[in-house]
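Tutorial sheet, problem 5. The two components below are modelled jointly, 550 residues in total.
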Amino acid sequence: MAMPPVRIDDPADPRIAGFVSIKERDLTGRQGRFIAEGTVVLRMLAAAHRAGRGIAAEAILLLENRLAGLADVLAEFPADLPVFVADGRVFDAIAGFNMHRGVLALGRRDQMPGRDALLAALAAESLALAACGLSNHDNMGALFRNAAAFGVDALLMDGSSCDPMYRKAIRVSVGSVLTLPFAREGTIAELIERLQAAGFALWGLSPRGETDIADIPPTPRTALLVGTEGEGLPDKILAAIRTARIRQRPGLDSLNVATAAAIALHQVARTNGRI
Amino acid sequence: MAMPPVRIDDPADPRIAGFVSIKERDLTGRQGRFIAEGTVVLRMLAAAHRAGRGIAAEAILLLENRLAGLADVLAEFPADLPVFVADGRVFDAIAGFNMHRGVLALGRRDQMPGRDALLAALAAESLALAACGLSNHDNMGALFRNAAAFGVDALLMDGSSCDPMYRKAIRVSVGSVLTLPFAREGTIAELIERLQAAGFALWGLSPRGETDIADIPPTPRTALLVGTEGEGLPDKILAAIRTARIRQRPGLDSLNVATAAAIALHQVARTNGRI
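Model answer (structure tokens):
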């Protein structure tokens, strides 16, 4: 159980400095700190903290009227975790905007395994999702949420993709960013080379893909690769690897990248008997 | 081709009154006017206007540096459509915020067929998507986008669902709201009754559904029903109709409603040979 709640009456109180103006401040990469929002994400943070693989909760800030309803979630945190409560006026003054949810946590992500260490640790039967040049935090969060739903073991991004530890991506992922192993480094060419070297059958997802996703054969290690929003995977990449498509009506615009990944992951997870 | 562009230098110019403070004003339902944003949606608006089924463009407002690149899209609009251009300062002062896209159109939705007329007009072989209590405009837009991708013939919502003609929903739908026939009225019980009376095999989508989506048999008329974000379909509804589930890993949270719909629509459209 986390510590007894401490009431905060001054938005400038140094004890809650980590929560100040979270909308304006980009906590990403700042000493590895991140912000978790909402009850479901708080629960995922507790799970990640207990798992002890590099994600730690540092403090919780609640709107005072949320406290009673969250007793069971708070019980999942360690006994020395500080919990602060504030009324609506003080809470909004701290956060810098009207935070309807009234549930915030400050977390820390310590040094996590890099791409190659993550790949080396995967089981003989694994499903990986790779992404290249993803620049939108909503899509990034949705990609994690969908990857978790279909049992992806690792999400691997090139270094040009945006940071999943950003508040909005964590929220949209419903906390999956905190529990699903991921790495974000290097070029897409390196990532493809590493996945292939690790024995992954790699399939680039594209409206122009050659193979219907339903015809991707089962393999112990399968990886799907998705590209930038809008543009998709570059032609050079599509020419170098096997490609798969989702049947759909011809039209001006293809599916959203996270939605396309969800449909393909669902299919591949079925084919491989993983769901 | 739309009319020669008229330059606007005064944000208070009455000719562009329909574009003022679009973020604050909820145009929804106000004399049936709506705002379309961005190049792709503008193109869909032109298509909808030409189709002449109740969607009409009234005016276009562009950032002046976007004009040259949009000549081909403007050519798709009728010759009497007013086009206004403004520099960045005036454009943002009109819109009320920094509109990076710099492409806006004001449209009008005239009286469209109601639910029953829409159902009566569907072909013998049809795919319908029904939604109950959808309250989030992003999800609504994504639902339309996914429905269009898999060839849904009509999207039918109960009256408690949010309005798809809202700017953000249109944008997220990538304009599909303007081209996909829809109706939003009545209760979900009525909608279920009407769909069944029209010979639709109706399947409620739920993590607790009885039938795997891959086992939904082909039928000339199939309808999928999705529920509120978070809560899903009420137990009372699930008990009254056939239900289907998407296989996934057990976890705290199910898929996003529009993502779940996409996966199920993809499967049902395949089963029925529609894609």
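Marking note: The first strand of chain A starts at residue 6 and ends at 7. Full credit if you identified this.
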